[in-house]
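Worked example (supplementary).
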Amino acid sequence: MLAVHLISFFFSKLKEDPTKKVDRFLHAMRLQDEQLVDISNRFLAEMKKGLSAESLAAAAVKMLPTHVRSTPDGSEKGQFVALDLGGSKFKVLRVKVREDEGINKGGVEMEEKTYPIPKELHEGRAVELFDHVSESLKDFLLEKNMSPEKKHPLAFTFSFPCEHPGLDQGLLLSWCKNYKVRGLQGKDVVQFLRQAIDRTGDMDVDVLAVVNDTVATMMTCGFDDQCCEVGLIIGTGTNACYMEELRHIDMVQGDEGRMCVNTEWGAFGDDGALHDFITDFDRDVDAASLNPGKQTFEKMVSGMYLGELVRLVVLKMAKLGLLFDGHVSDALRTKGKITTADVAAMEEYRNGLKNTKEILTHLHLTPSPDDCVAVQHVSTIVSFRSSNLVAAGLVAILTRIRQNRNLRGLRITVGVDGTVYKTHPQYPKRLHKVVRRLLPDCHVRFVLSECGSSKGAALVAAVAQRLTSQRRKVDEALSLFTLNEEKLQLVKSRMREGLEAGLKSKGCTIKMLPSFVYHTPDGTERGKYLALDLGGTNFRAMLVRFKRQKTRLYHKIYTIPLEIMQGTGEELFDHLAQCVCDFLDYMGLKNVRLPAGFTFSFPCQQSDIDTGTLVSWTKGFKATDCEGEDVVSMLREAIKRRNEFDLDIVALVNDTVGTMMSCAYEDPKCEVGMIAGTGSNLCYMEELRNIEKLEQSNKWGGLGNDRCLEDIITLYDVEVDIHSVNPGKQRFEKLTSGMYLGEIVRQVLLDLTRRGLLFKGHVTETLKTPGIFETKYLSQIESDHLALLQVRSILQQLGLHGTCDDSIIVKEVCGAVSRRAAQMCGAGMAAVVDKIREDRGLERLSITVGVDGALYKLHPHFSQVLKETVGVMAPQCDVTFMPSEEGSGKGAALIAAVVRQKHQMQN
Ligand code: BG6
Ligand code: BG6
Ligand code: GLC
Ligand code: GLC
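After joint prediction of all chains, the assembly is encoded as:
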């Protein structure tokens, strides 16, 4: 007896676990992590192909741009009707979206009705299908008492691959899943829908948007989770979409911001990219489908095919005698007899085996307990392969997003929908686990779209509505900065009138101030000179040594603290003397009495080359007791007070003049000097006969002080002027120079934010802070080489936290403001060079302009726009711009040298 027991125990140990034979039989379907990584990399390559213009035509994975540029931000509102076609059910819905409320707070209300689509319509004519759709819509509107008179905005979820020339157009590329309708391929589905609605009659419907179900799902989930930037469907079909950087999407113009791309990953493998992973069962499923050779990946993954795969495997195993003792029933031979719902039931946690037995019995089979275990295991392998493949695809998408954003880790949410994901008991857990295992650095959250894709489609429609109206308002605000040729002509003629008036009398807005510089240098200058340079971004002390062939320069930069800029005059000049003392110390020249040129970049009334009374402070300086005083004397006194060194200040020079001189040293045609920096100014060599009061250097910054620029000045400029240290003064400068451009930008941003068009309408303390936008930020933000994310991070450094869309608007504002500045300077410059040309009685003038200033040198577009404008506004002048290499200090030293040599010759 004992022996019998032992033998049967021994045999029971020998008898094979039924799952083992299935494992062996289906080993090609059991994908290891390395294989998944391999598949993921292949998909990554396919994505690249589909995005690039060169390889797009041949790409299997279409990567379709959707024109959806932002995920919901909570401000969407309105009531919409929605149509949802292409999944397992056709539905008509009413979606109400209330402002500023998440669904949890009841922000979205939905009512829906499912309308069956008769089988013959799946493979009938397009017109018939759309008539059915529109009649269902009408039935729904009537049932819900939605007035036929009122216009109902409609969002259309259409879950097939479409190209979207716009948000409300969808050109069908091909049918898939269980549809093969004639006469729609290549056509616009929205047009078909509109025509059907017209045929049905008695409805007023405005089709605003057509979206893929993946996109709609991403939007649905994005309403409550702002991190949701991927939409995934594992239902009748399978597909995914994600937010791609616009600059990578060759098919869409523009490179700012993001756009949702519908990958249409179902077609992955259609070009053979998955050939080594395709099994005979996949080939059989494909051959029996409505679209053989197409949607390779989808046929390995989605609900439409999983049951069929299981049936084919079970049939084959039975035929080989590995199941049911080799018995095969007619039902088992029939396509569609095992469904994806059956697969889910067989894998149920407690009742799985019982369900398997029932399902098989229903197929007129007589399964043994081992058969049930084996068939259940077939299901598991087939559905596991599906979730593994989806994981591989998803890993590719997440990797791409992470690479796009230059991040190591990534926190992101994936919105998911589809019957497989929703009803298969193990599927979600398996999928999540594999994704997290393959991407350990990423924090991936999966959110089930609880209420289908229609909410998301309605949100797309709402966003479309909102963006159109926002865009209009932003464009209106920015159009205030647009200068057409007529306006530029006006600036030019006003500048010309200002110059003429300034040459004649004193009380003018453009102070044509004399510089007492009669000669440009001639190259014979020699010796060591000191140059002091106050009025730009920094104070500079410089030693210039003119030798026979070359000039040597040594300099040191000193900042001027705000409290000194705005303290007393004595403090300011004492500070300058201290800086000079430090510099001489540093150069070991404290005991030499050097001749010095003093670049003082503020309006001065000069009565000689080395005396000048400050007319008024500009550019944020307001030290007391200086205006009306001779600044050279003030500097001399400060040096005396310090009593540590001595200087022979021989020339007082404006920076424009210094710039002109230093450039003229290189190019004798340089007869104009221009500064586009903290301030804005210009000087030129005027004919002495025209100067009634011996004046030469222009102060063009003052143009407009007599209100002659009123038709250009915007409400934003008015704000900037009111809050400046010199209201009503330097109106031209306040439109054109670095000191003010940032402030103008800030005023525009403030206004747009107050009107809810930016930063979600949150006016922060940062935004209210004057001076946060320095010119350098403007230059950075407008750089062409900067991705939008970098713009966003610059804004974040400034304490302005916004979305990528906000960054686009900020960049546009900066562009509008700086462009206007460059155009104004161009028109002003045109007035000056044309005057010189006319004064000399020339048909054409060829002239060089020496330029300096941070705006000119560092801003990415200013110099180009300036040049273009001069070209258009002064067509008879050939103007060459020559950036000053060493600042105006070298020019000041040159002037000092010219003056010194003249004195020496006279003595
Ligand atoms: C639904 C969406 O929730 O999910 C459909 O509303 C979508 O638009 C569907 O197609 C995908 O799942 P299934 O299983 O119905 O194809
Ligand atoms: C410098 C000059 O190079 O340019 C200064 O030396 C001048 O004198 C300055 O004021 C203007 O530029 P910014 O941008 O510093 O105001
Ligand atoms: C198919 C369609 C695709 C859709 C998916 C899920 O793959 O081509 O557009 O998103 O099914 O429904
Ligand atoms: C301011 C000053 C002017 C100077 C210009 C550029 O406009 O008034 O003198 O040239 O800034 O720095």
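Two points are worth noting when inspecting this output. The mean pLDDT is 90. The first strand starts at residue 64 and ends at 65.
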